[in-house]
Structure formats: structure tokens, C-alpha cells
Amino acid sequence: MRFLSMIRVDETTGQVPSERLMADMGKLTREGVMIDTAGLRPTAEGVRVRLRRGKLSMTDGPFTETKEVIGGYAILEATSKAHAIELTKRFLEVHGDEWNIECEVRQLDTM
Predict the structure, then answer these.
(1) d(CA 82, CA 95)
(2) Among 15, 14, 12, 38, which Cα is nearest to 25's?
(3) Which residues make Cβ contacts (< 8 Å) with residue 110, sequence separation at least 6?
(4) Residues 26-74 pLDDT 10s
(5) Burial, 93: exposed, middle or buried (Cβ in 10 Å; 0-12, 13-18, 19+)?
(6) How far, in Å, are 1, 28, 32, 37 from residue 9 at the CA level?
(7) What is the pTM of this model?
(8) How far apart are the C-alpha atoms of 70 and 102, rounded to whole Å?
(9) Residue 32 and residue 30: Cα distance in Å, rounded?
(10) CB contact set of 45 (below 8 Å; sequence gap of 6+)
(11) pLDDT value at position 13?
(12) DSSP states of the chain as a string?
């Protein structure tokens, strides 16, 4: 089963991953438990596209109504939801004590 771990960050901190952090995340990828991971560019560079009652609208970033945003993701290969949670804990632990982040873990639907 595949799970998506959405990483919530406070983008106002300006933190960027260290080389050590990138290397530690690479180990998880090589183990085959983390299929893919990436950070997202700041909301200032984004746009929201909405469909409401058949009408499309767009809003350019930054999105000031939220402090914490989805700042990245990890796609995990896990045998169960409990296993995905354990993998997410490992993923968070490699960030060390200088990061304040949280992840929302959800199973991916497959067609």
C-alpha cells in the first residue's frame, strides 16, 4: 500500500534542509520505504485554482490566511497504516530538533 505523508511547515522560518538531512532522507529512499519526497516552493510563488458551482477562479500567493502550509511530501510504501505511521516517525526524526513540522498521513487510492 502507498501512503502520502504531507509535511506541514511554518514557511515564515525560512529553514532549508541541510546536507545531512538530505543524506538521511536519501537513506530512507534507498531502503525502498520512501518512494519519493520533495519540498514545495513558497506559497508566494503559487496559485490556487478553485471550482465552485461550475465557475473557476484563481488566487495568486502568498496565502496569508494560513501560517502553516504543506511544505513538502513523502510517498511511502507500507504494509499497513500503522507501518506508514512508523515510517513517518522515522522521516520526522531525521529532521532533528531544529525543525518544528508535522505530517498528515493518508493512504493513496489506486485505480
Answers:
(1) 21
(2) 38
(3) 2
(4) 888 888 888 998 989 988 899 989 999 999 999 998 876 667 789 999 9
(5) exposed
(6) 26, 20, 25, 15
(7) 0.83
(8) 10
(9) 5
(10) 61
(11) 86
(12) -EEEEEEEEEGGG-----HHHHHHHHHHHHTTSEEEEEE---GGG-EEEEEETTEEEEEESP-TT-SEEEEEEEEEE-SSHHHHHHHHHHHHHTTGGG---EEEEEEPP--
Contact 36, 74 (CB under 8 A): yes
The C-alpha cell 511547515 sits at 9
Buried b (16+ CB within 10 A) or exposed e, 13-42: eebeeeeebeebbeebeeeebbeebeebee
